[in-house]
Amino acid sequence: PECRSLLAAFAEGSAALTGCLGRRARPVRLCQGCHGHYRRLLAQYGSIARANSSESHNCAKSILTSDRLQIVVTLSEFFNETWEAANCANCLKNNSEGLSNSTEEFLDLFNKSLTCFEHNLQGQATDLSPNNYTEVCKNCNETYTKLNDLYNHLQRMNRQGGESAHSAHLCIDVEDAMNITRKLWSRTFNCSLPCSDTVPVIAVSSFILFLPIVFYLSSFLHSKQKKRILILPKRIQSNANLVNIQEKYS
After folding, report:
1. Range 201-216 average pLDDT
2. Helix (H) or strand (E) holding 213
3. H-state helical runs in 30-70
């Protein structure tokens, strides 16, 4: 009975997590919606693995390794691999009890961006041409810029955090949300962000263009200075000769 109870709890946990993953597969909301189910399933599997207090009730051996298929082990590995591939740990607190502060901030900006898109499209749908979304681009530019900047910041912080194969990615929820928003902004609404590097680029380009002028000007002045230095001793010598002649006939 003890082993059957543990197995039934794991089966119910697996069904709940599978249902959650399936329902939140599109748009992707795995990490934010299923972390509670995943945490409970880990605890249930841990209860099975530790249930080996006596030889007559060795539930761990009976449930996990007594047959060739090892269904419970296979299911557990599948959920662990899925959770790791989704990088859900990057969006959760250390104890996985909830979303991290940065993830909540991102999702809040994401929802505000979608709300802004919808609000500026209402009332214009009947007379809105496919390429005329100027109101969306103008009124939602600030919110979208904040969202895009925060995503880029999270990416940089995440890359600095480790050297593993998954370190280059944020959790799948955040990546999918940003992909959706960027496609709407650039492809559907045909909006664009002003380049923040325009001023530095112009300054550097102007400096490079003026380098030849500065080079030739400095070369010209340098050659003129050398010419004056070479002529000056002749003048001094002729003046000295003139003084000697005057002294001789005076």
Report:
1. 63
2. helix 198-249
3. 30-50, 59-64
